[in-house]
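Hey, weird one. I pasted the AAA family ATPase sequence into the form twice and got a warning about non-standard characters only the second time. First submission, copied straight from the form history:
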Amino acid sequence: MSGDTTEEMESARRFAADLKKIVSTTAATLDAGSPAAALIDKVTRHLGVPLSSVLLVAQQLEDWEHATLQRGVDVYLAERGDDAEWFGISGASRGHEDLVGMLAGASRHGQFELGAVDFTTAAVGPDEVTEVVQLGLVATTAPDGTPVIVGVRGSMPQYGAPFCRFEVLSAVREAATAVRDRIDELRREHDVLRGQVLAFGVSEHRGNELLTFLPRPELDEDQVVLPEGVLPTIERHVVSIAEHAERLLASGQHLKRGLLLHGPPGTGKTHTVRYLMGRLPETTVVVLTGTVMRFISKAAALARRLQPCMVVLEDVDLVAQDRSATPMGNPLLFSLLDAMDGIGSDADVTFVLTTNRAKDLENALADRPGRVDLALEIPKPDAEGRERLFHLYGRGVNLTADLAPVVAGTDGVTASFIKELLRRATLRGLDVRPDQDPVTVDDEALSTALTEMQDARNALTRSLLGT
């Protein structure tokens, strides 16, 4: 009985062992054909090493560099002559892992699988977007021929702060580093931000900084109404230096310059800045105003990279108030000073600052050469200037009114006031002759609009418009 029991137990053990082997072999066969195994096989077959020997070299960039990064990768692949196809990774929580982490998760737990490439769009101009890889990989080679895999990852805000990132997988660190450096070089050479008008802002939903493309203004010289000699002085300081940059450097002269435009609200400071943007069509412009001036360090870094560049700081008194005005000083002021000082004198960078309260500015900002070299007041227009403004803002209407009494009656007003006055007079003209084209603005329409704006009940409006 006991011999029979021993044989039965041995038979049972053999059966269990055979069953375990069958189950193990079946599982391995099934795993080998799984999407996770296909992902691992696609990577390791190209790199020629097991997953344990794969290393990663990466570079993380600002979210708004995504289109430039894609362009750099595309040019790199074209250089290599690759007719390579992108492939993707599917699975939950991809935003928490780098490529090596996702591959490890695929190998150990089948957490990630071979999938389709994720695409999205990114702006490359005020009215233009391009398709970029949100998450995808492409098999290629390093400059020395070593097999590598390049991965691109865009922002996934649900997983934290926005960014874009490219990663290079290889069995050889030097090869991966060479690919990263070459892609970085190419993205700088083909930067989509170069020559654009850019504005920093803040996302109301995510709280992070955004970089927005703006259309470049196109203003003629006769559309800028300033006291005689002011506009030529501004152009000589900003535009002439840009036009003669190489000769100035060869003569041992510095290029970096600072311009401060100050005066009451509504006199044309921003309008003058817009004219300068149009006068320098190849120059990159970075605009900061209000609370986004806290991004001045990033703006200065862009200016160094994308020169020739103009950095516009509107209402700079919000940042550059004299440090003695507050017990703890002004941290944003220090950031501004550091940013202006940190750009070398040979950099073709212009800082253009506007303010309504020049007297409140920090002396270190306003008086030191290399920060602000030229400060000009943009005053309220005189009689000649007001007449020019009436003709400027009345170009789209049939302006038949006698301007002499209106010019005399608007002493002390700003350009903004005159612009609004013409708009209201045009509405009056439309009320009287709705079908007339162009609209006629006669004495009655203009005088009625002026009386309305000068009425004591509109004191607040006049104040806001800078009278």
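That's the output from the first submission. The warning seems to come from a hidden character in my clipboard, not from the data itself. The chain has 16 helices and 16 strands.
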